[in-house]
Automatic annotation (TrEMBL):
This protein's UniProt keywords: Membrane, Transmembrane, Transmembrane helix
Protein's membrane topology: Multi-pass membrane protein
Localization of this protein: Membrane
GO cellular component terms listed in the entry, alphabetical order: membrane
InterPro entries on file: AI-2E-like (IPR002549)
Protein name: AI-2E family transporter
Organism: Natronocalculus amylovorans
Membrane recorded as keyword: yes
Keyword Lipid biosynthesis attributed: no
TM spans (from-to): 16-47, 68-92, 141-170, 206-227, 233-253, 282-299
Amino acid sequence: MRWSVSSNDGGLPKTIGWWLFAIALFLVLVVALQTYIGWIVFGVFLYHVARPVARRLQHHGVSPGLSALLSFGLIMLPFMAVLGVFIVLLLAELAAIEATDVEALLERLFPRLAIETLPTSEDELYAFVEVLRSDPTLATLIPLVSGFVGTFTVQAFNVLITFVFAFFLVRDERRIDSWFRSTIVERESNVYAYLKAVDRGLASVYFGYTLTIIVISIVAVIIYSVLNLLAPPGLAIPHAILLGFATGLISVIPLIGRNLLYGSIFLYLTVVAYQTNLRYVWFPIVFYIVMGGIFDNVIRTYVRPSLSGRLFHTGFVMFAYLLGPAIFGWYGIFLGPFIMVVTIQFLRVQLPKMHPH
């Protein structure tokens, strides 16, 4: 490998010294960037989602800079805007279930957010809205928002830096790869083989599973909401946004995952229709035809083949997505799969080479 030293430079002792320095430097970087680890992993996710689009544009003669700009400006930004609205609605619905403590929920998902500056209780929200209603002037608005405007400014800056980071990764990926191979490791080295395996794994998980979960969740919420507009009185699908997210998340379980959820909702709606009015039984049937027939067929025929990610056992993927947010907060949905990929690819690629035969 290119970073090894010759015996004329001091041999093994000097190599160990440089490795110790590299470890110390790595630890310094980890401590310095630990506050932004979530945004860094989120940027890696954006890179792997935007990369296939940019590469396809480059294949048709578009320059790397313009292809990266188009992939982010025309696809990623609108998609993230829709995702942001979906997350806000999801948090609102979670907070509405059994009087969930909004403040505790936000502190769990966003541990570094200045929660005390946000109006989270019912009394604070009521007072906020009432003051704006009675005196909707700029002089009234400034004192109200001054407490939490700084919080959102910081988060907006983090989002901007994340998009810039992902943009440069997409635009300069070939230069970075060329520099890495010519300066740090050789193409034939074990390190390069392992990193390429990790990159393939992240592309499979992020573009395959994560994007599939997000797309299915958003589309399922839209379908549930439209069905609720057609539902007979008292027969609406409960917590449509939460069930939409569950539809996307349970999609990591092949074949039976979504059907279990559809079946549960179908049984619930059928029982309610039986208790309310037997003439309403058409709605559960329509629901299952739309979700279990049409929607599920579209996922299997078009979504899955386009966003295929099947390098890893679904059990590992499922636990990575379930435990990631529970352990790390909001960015756990990206960091959990990242840790899974790094670990499993090490066991696949590198560990057999280290084990003596």
